[in-house]
Amino acid sequence: MKIKVIGAGLAGVEAAYYLLKKGYQVDLYEMRPKVMTPAHRTGDFAELVCSNSLRSDDIFNGVGLLKHEMRQFDSITMLSAEVAQVPAGSSLAVDRTIFSETIKSMLLSFEKLSIIEDVFSQIDENIPTIIATGPLTHKDLMTSLGSIFKQEFLHFFDAVSPILDGTTIDMNVCYLKSRYDKGDADYINCPMDKETYLRFYDALMSSDKVEVKDFENNVFEGCMPVETMAERGIDTLRFGPLKPVGLEKDGERPYAVIQLRQDDVGKTMYNIVGFQTHLTWPAQKKLIQMIPGLEQASIIRYGVMHKNHYIHSTEVLNGGYQVKHQPNLFIAGQLSGVEGYVESAASGLNAAIQLDQYLKTGHVLPFPKDTMIGAMARYVSTPNRSFVPMNANFGLMDAIETKMKKTDRKAFYVNRAKEAMSSYMKEAMTID
Questions:
Q1: pLDDT in tens, 255-312
Q2: Percentage of the chain with pLDDT > 90?
Q3: Is 269 exposed, middle or buried (0-12, 13-18, 19+ CB in 10 A)?
Q4: Domains of the chain: which residue ranges?
Q5: With the CA atoms of 221, 265, 135 and 142 taken in that order, what torsion angle do they form, in degrees rounded to the nearest 10?
Q6: What CATH number matches the domain at 160-307, 1.10.275.10, 1.10.286.20, 2.40.30.260, 2.60.120.40?
Q7: pTM score, whole prediction
Q8: Which of 96, 27, 41 is nearest to 306 (CA)?
Q9: Which of 65, 64, 78, 77 has the alpha carbon at shortest distance from 371?
């Protein structure tokens, strides 16, 4: 049987890989590089904006638990991340080029895969299809989906950080260290004294910004631009991305610290942690070169803003990412209302599992709500008038009634999720 997967981002490649392993013929559509988007720079599969896009690998963190669950289903995202991994403390950071190349190579090993490099716009309700085109879906497909769902697309604005040439960073000023010395010293730290920080803050507040219509009303909290955070108070950055705690040098704590994270295996590129921005490019250059150790820094990629779209999924999807009134159609990735690369990949994996279940049994088999994969699916399919995209977090799961310490509560969530996943996998295996 032929299945169409639309989009070769994290959700699409995850769905395609799972279905190919199940023996299906998969037509994978990807419009890039024929048609590019405001956020993408290449035509690569599963392109990431920075090395740390996959975030924490700690199982006692929401996205870390999600990764643990994905690995149990042989996730192509997790397999490729292991190949492309670069040092980043407790985070799962990757060399983005190696990551994308590994994913494409793994997919091309299947004879039943066909890749169509073109815009997909016409949905055939008779052909099982997973739409995973992401938040920058082509306008023609958006029009088609809008007519199916009888709704306007919702949106928020997203931002990415600048990337610097590692050879232009002054290591006589900067120093290598991970916060609290956890793991290896994987971050480059640019220390600021009080006077330097105040000059930096004043320059940031007066910098020229790119005008974005309705920006302030539609920012995703997890990607808040640095200048927007700074507007909340002079010390907001010092308690946020520029927090100096745990980054002491020679026994002394700087007033503020800007961290740089390795972006490739060769240690030639570093992105500025927590520096998402919609400042103009000249303003970015001036501000970055005010940072100690970055006076001569060469900027490889400037920070940019782009508008993300998502459907009001709570009105149209069930707990398996299946469109309620069109059962051959599934929506995965950020278009479905999940937020984040790992979350998108997990939703693509989930959608593929559910499509396989539907084709075999006539109905989907949603994951338990006590798993992170299941909690995410429940969130995007439960009626909610104030629905907004959401990262994986323990708040998506049912609360614990008894009082516990924070660490004990997280352990409880994790153990409960493991038990629920074990039961689910046994049930799913009986169908295979």
A1: 999 999 998 888 888 999 989 888 999 999 999 999 999 999 999 888 877 677 888 8
A2: 67
A3: buried
A4: 2-153+311-431, 160-307
A5: 170
A6: 2.40.30.260
A7: 0.76
A8: 41
A9: 65
